[in-house]
Amino acid sequence: MKKSTISIALASALLTVAVAQASEFDGGYVGVQAGSNKSSANNAAFMFPSASASAYGVSAGYNWDLQSVVLGVDGFYDVDASTAHTLTSSNFGSKVYGLDAKLGLAYGDWLPFVKLGYGHTAASNDLSAASGNGLHTGLGVEYKFAPQWSAQVEYLLAKGSIDSGKIANKTTSIGINYYFDTPAAAPVAAAVVAPVVVKAPEPVVAPAPVVVAPVVVAPAPVVAPAPAPKTIFTDKPMTIEGASFDTNSAKLKPTAHKQLDEVVVFAAKYPEANLSVDGYTDSRGKEKANLILSTRRAESVKAYLVKKGVDSKRIVTAGHGSAKTVADNTTDAGRAKNRRVEINSVIRVAQ
């Protein structure tokens, strides 16, 4: 039986991808900190033993996430409040600013890190002041509680050299960081695939019979009607479970490859089928960041399929953020189901 019409519509193989929902540590950020400081100064003309005071600070930096290893730079400015010391009634305070290199190792939403860099420490009392340059070190841990927000606890040590002595600051603080939006992947317009229609061949009519005297008109041949079109749908979607991304990333884990290869086999078996790749998140975080993350993950799935030989023109991607939920976003189990990537395709063949 000849195929008379081939039209292609999106919907069939279903890919559900369970992924963690949070922003990445990669990118630029700004932060504020508050805590407690112990500072001291010791040289011939400027001597104060260690004393505690409140401390405040601001910072800004940029991180590069290299597959869980995070490298960054961090600029800071810390102010330690003036306080009286035991050996004098004079108030003593300090300020520290500088630049650190940052090294961390991401574990899901957690980032333990160390810092090493340069600090300039300036100390003063009611009558005089002193300042010096030196090593600035620190260690801490950061926790991402929303796509663009994190909390952190850290311990910092700054030592500056002054004439025949040292200035030292030891600060313990908690802080809040705001991460700027991760640049979105190039937008891919959701295309409506126009059906490809192949016209049925014109019916072949038998030639008119030869007229022989006496003239007898032969009855016209009966042309069998073309079979009525019948649409066949691939109405049994293929479900692939367990494909996933690195935490907070659009990079596919190797464990997803075997399952995505099944989609590649499906696409090769049905070359007339197009694929629609749609990314979703749960409802946590800002919707703008969710849309960006879901789009980038859909693009990663497309990139893998294209690498495996599927024509990119057959694949349409889109990110929908937290839209089209399939479960309750107020529970962990429900949110896990809503974090997904779906691949859909349907073949409709009239014959």
Account of the 3D structure:
There is one protein chain. The longest helix is centred in the C-terminal third of the chain and has 21 residues. The protein folds into 2 domains: 157 residues, OmpA-like domain (60s Ribosomal Protein L30, Chain: A); 153 residues, Porin, CATH 2.40.160. Helices cover 12% and strands 49% of the residues. The N and C termini lie close together (7 Å). The N terminus is likely disordered. It has 351 residues and is mainly β.
Question: Could you provide a short overview of the structure?
Answer:
This protein is mostly beta strands and 351 residues long. It has helices at residues 257-269, 287-307, 332-338; strands at residues 5-9, 14-17, 27-42, 47-66, 69-85, 88-105, 110-124, 129-146, 149-162, 165-179, 231-233, 239-243, 275-280, 315-319, 340-344, 346-350.
Features:
351 residues; mainly beta; 60s Ribosomal Protein L30, Chain: A; Porin; 2 domains; 8-stranded antiparallel beta barrel; 3-stranded antiparallel β-sheet; 3 helices; rod-shaped; disordered N terminus
Shape: rod-shaped
Q: What is the name of the CATH class of the largest domain?
A: Alpha Beta
Intertermini distance: 7 Å
Q: What is the rounded Rg?
A: 34 Å
Number of strands: 16
Q: Average pLDDT across residues? A: 75
The assigned structural class equals mainly beta
| CATH-defined superfamily of the largest domain | OmpA-like domain
Question: What string, H for helix and E for strand, traces the elements in order?
Answer: EEEEEEEEEEEEHEHEHEE
The major beta sheet can be summarized as: 8 strands, antiparallel, barrel
Helix share of residues? Answer: 10-25%
Number of structural units classed as domains:
2
Query: Low-confidence stretches at least 5 residues in length (pLDDT < 50)?
Result: 1-23, 183-198, 228-236
CATH architecture of the largest domain: 2-Layer Sandwich
